[in-house]
Amino acid sequence: MAGWAELPNDLIAHIANRVKVIEDFIAFRAVCTAWRIAATKDNFDVFYPQVPLFMLGAKDYNFQEFYSLSKKKVSRIFLPEVRGSEYLSTEGWFCTVVNKTGEMNLLHPFNHKKIQLPSRKALLTFHDLDAFEKHHWLCIDRAVLSANPSLTSDYVLMVHHYVAGCCLSFWRPGDLDWTHIDVSHIHSRVAALIYHKGEFYSTDNDGEIWAHQVGADQPIVMTRLVAEINQLNEMNEHMFMFRLHLVELSGALLVVSRFDDDSNGTFHTFKYKVYELDVIRGELKEMKALGDSSIFLGLNWATCIDSSKFIGIKPNHIYFAGDVLEELIEDMGAYNLEDGKIESFYPGQSLSLIYPPTWIMPSLIM
């Protein structure tokens, strides 16, 4: 590779700038030292929406497998940091919680960088301790970053946790503890959480959407009702269950309603509906098509990408994986919003007794 290594630095950087898939960019940098030096993250459009990697259900505690829809292959990565932990994917990072100690961190899965967080024990102060003694557990089932810590130190992490009732808390770099948000007006568990245009939005299982504004200088949180969307559950009379997701598409906030059939004792997704939310008026408008966009839904996290820019991603589809922590069953597929058909996107099974499969957005740290 000596000849390739002797290419002009400007030419190498120009070639690197034309690479759009992050796995290819990482491979590009691995060619030799000269290419790695020239191919900095400044030469890669890091803001370019990437295809999420499908993290398969855990088989052991030291390795994780990631399936690339573009490459149609599985990569096995040594990731012992998640051993004995629960983890939630957000902005290309994991929010991890060690089961035995309650230690919490933000973890980048591909370079193993950690950012220490206040512990899970600190969240107990926001709960009824009598209820905790009765239930003997505290669950953290949502964790969302306002921005990628790889790109900025100005970000907020919001988590949803519950014992007998639900709570929202947030943390910012430099904070010594979690800041509690009063959500006593929310009567059911948060079903989805997203950061959108300077605010965190949550929806609960009763079909209400709330906006939570976190002040930059002071821990002042303003909460207001945005919309009531119980009408989305028009199929309840048929004994079907529905769940809600929040996702951003081209600057718009979408509500995705997922319908499950549990008539045979296990949940099975059979239908989706998509609505655009007017956050000012609190009104919903159903979307019949996504154009070239595709939605990815999973445990804790959702995103949209322009499928026309990548190989192997179908437009107007919703790629989904089991999105409930307690459900370790295989419920995943690609839903065609046009004809309602569901097909497989992974040529195998991803059953797990340790942790269900999920999506993670690949991101760079250099």
TrEMBL record:
Highest taxon of the lineage: Eukaryota
Taxon lineage: Eukaryota, Viridiplantae, Streptophyta, Embryophyta, Tracheophyta
Domain F-box as annotated: residue spans: 7-48
Protein name: F-box domain-containing protein
Gene3D superfamilies: 1.20.1280.50
Source organism of the structure: Solanum verrucosum
InterPro entries for this protein: F-box-like_dom_sf, F-box_BR-signaling, F-box_dom, KIB1-4_b-propeller
A Pfam family reported for this protein in Swiss-Prot or TrEMBL: F-box
